[in-house]
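With this grant's support, we have settled on a layout for protein records. One resulting record is reproduced below.
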Amino acid sequence: SHGSPPGLYLLLFWITFWPGAPLAGMAAPAVWRARREPGAQFLLAWLVPSWIVFELVLTKLPHYVLPLYPAIAILTVGALERRVLSRSWLMRGSAWWFIIPALASIIAVVGAIALTRQPAFLAWPLAAAAMILGLFAWWLYDDSRAERSLLNAVVAAMLLAAAVYGVVVPSLTALFPSAEIARALRNVVCVGPKAAAAGFHEPSLVFMTDTSTVLTDGSGAADFLNQGSCRFALVEQRSERSFVQRAEAIGLRYNVARRIDGYNISQGKAVSIAIFRSEGTE
């Protein structure tokens, strides 16, 4: 479920190594020229073979290549200290310190408005500050003040992360179906609710509801619901048919307390989870 073609890590590098990625691009020609130096040889031996293997392996997750990032950082800083960054990349490379925060801020704010119908006002000043600092990082860049520009870019990245991960992402409730299920179970009237899940077995569900939550299939969820009151069956849409068939077979009377539509990030697919309860349970 996490298979991706070669080149994905190189593409993600420009995000996951931010804001150092533009500097790494500027340093690449100098690193190549210094490839026969002992220090550079050691760092390239650390970086290149492993990177190739990670790209060729089918299963890919962004954090797999993190052990290689220190080698990239050391190579980049070495080129920065020697002031041998590619001159042709200077303006184009440093411009990304402004372009990326600007694009990410616009996408985050507009996306939040489109998906949640909420303006996400708290993200606006953070995004604006990130764009301003990114602009300073671009305009101030030259060989003698590269560190100052990088510092501006680092602060811009921190503000952008606060806007995206601190404000926008938490507002996208569809990305967190387990949290929505847990909230629904906390609001029930009956005391000591018990739950069984069919078709949605994410670890986050167990952690956020109860470690006694039963992980089963549609038929098992119907049997669970039939065993007493204050019980809830959390049935993903793909398991509903077997739940309904088993409920009819055992004469279970139930109704839908709530339906939660969301997106399972780990599986990369939309989910629709019905919270069934036996008749008489509130």
Q: What stands out?
A: The chain has three domains: 1-85, 91-171, 175-278. The CA atoms of residues 112 and 168 lie 6 Å apart. The radius of gyration is 26 Å.
